[in-house]
Amino acid sequence: MSGNADNNRPIVLAVVLAIAAVPIAIFLLRGKAAETASKAIANAGGESAPGAYDISALRKVPGEWITHRELPPIKLGIPSPVALAVDETGNILVSGNKTILKLSPSGKETGRFAINAPSVAMAVSPDSLVAVLCGNKCDLVAEKNGEIQMSIPLPENAIPTSVAIDDKSAYVADAGNGAVWRYSLKTGKLLNAIGRGDKDKEIPTLIIPSPHFDVAVASDGSIWLANTGRHMLESFSPDGVFRYSWKRPANGPKGFSGCCNPSNFTITPAGLFVTAEKNIPRVKIYDQAGKFLEFVAPPTAFADNALILDIAYNPVTKQILLLDSKTKKLRRFKKKTEPDPQKKPETFESSARSR
């Protein structure tokens, strides 16, 4: 027996050494993984730091990318503006609490009317019919005098966040159900859902992590919605047939970062996308295929913790309009190459040549 024990000692020693080597190997691998992760963060434009993630690099934008200038903001006659819309003649509608203001294209108040509940979103049709999301319903109101033409009830568990409208239908974005509901303007009847996804056709379902879910109608009649959890914009026909999509998830300034972005967007008559983001507030422009073009307003144009509540494009003044949660004013941005409407043109006196 003693002779066999002596023969087994080298084997036992080898096993002990092998077991001791396991935690050492794990420690070394973890160190290598941490080093790799740190390099990845640095390459993405950030840096590793104990207990914090530095996002200061994401707030920096090259000056040549900023193609718009800000015009004097418009002070609004309501305490808490939340929604914005522009009609085809350039008139601006702003809603807040239980009031809708009507402004001229230059921003002068021309009228106001009351609504029966606080609003969360608003859109105006080519026929001057205003769709207003109030509570758990969508009211269709005459732009001229504020008279309710129809009140459309929404699903009981709906979290309405945005509304778009054309000459036949109203489209209500519902973050609670992850869908856009299409309603007839004539009957108020629910016609179909948009954005529910289709596994067989490889159409992704919507990921809406928060009540930031925007919808818009393009000039060609297509319906666009923000799949914010995927940093994606998707296009559908009015009856819900998927057309195509584009996405730009990125930590850099040219893409969408963080949660639930873009939080708001609008589409110009030329088909360009003007997007707004939350957490790091900024406004950018993309082409129809999702290619980044330019900055309208960089993060430095906004106060800390500011939220862009809504955004719109005025085709008459060619201005990009937005509501700022901090200033509670209507902010206006215009292409630097466009003439400044606040600046008077220079005049020159001519003198006759003496003979």
Describe the structure.
It contains one helix and 26 strands. 34% of the residues are buried. The strands form seven sheets. The chain has a four-stranded antiparallel beta sheet with strand order 3-26-25-24, with no helix packed on it. The chain has one domain: TolB, C-terminal domain (Neuraminidase, 6 Propeller). 12% of the residues lie in helices and 39% in strands. The chain has one helix spanning 2-43, and strands at residues 48-49, 52-53, 68-75, 81-86, 92-96, 99-103, 109-114, 119-124, 129-134, 137-142, 148-153, 160-165, 169-174, 179-184, 190-194, 215-217, 223-227, 232-236, 242-247, 264-267, 273-277, 282-286, 292-297, 308-314, 319-324, 329-335. The termini are far apart. A hairpin with a 5-residue loop joins strand 22 (282-286) and strand 23 (292-297). By secondary structure, the chain is mainly beta.
Task: From the structure above, extract its key features.
355 residues, mainly beta, Neuraminidase, 26 strands
Topology:
Blueprint: H1 2-43, E1 48-49, E2 52-53, E3 68-75, E4 81-86, E5 92-96, E6 99-103, E7 109-114, E8 119-124, E9 129-134, E10 137-142, E11 148-153, E12 160-165, E13 169-174, E14 179-184, E15 190-194, E16 215-217, E17 223-227, E18 232-236, E19 242-247, E20 264-267, E21 273-277, E22 282-286, E23 292-297, E24 308-314, E25 319-324, E26 329-335
Antiparallel strand pairs: 1-2, 3-26, 4-5, 5-6, 6-7, 8-9, 9-10, 10-11, 12-13, 13-14, 14-15, 16-17, 17-18, 18-19, 20-21, 21-22, 22-23, 24-25, 25-26
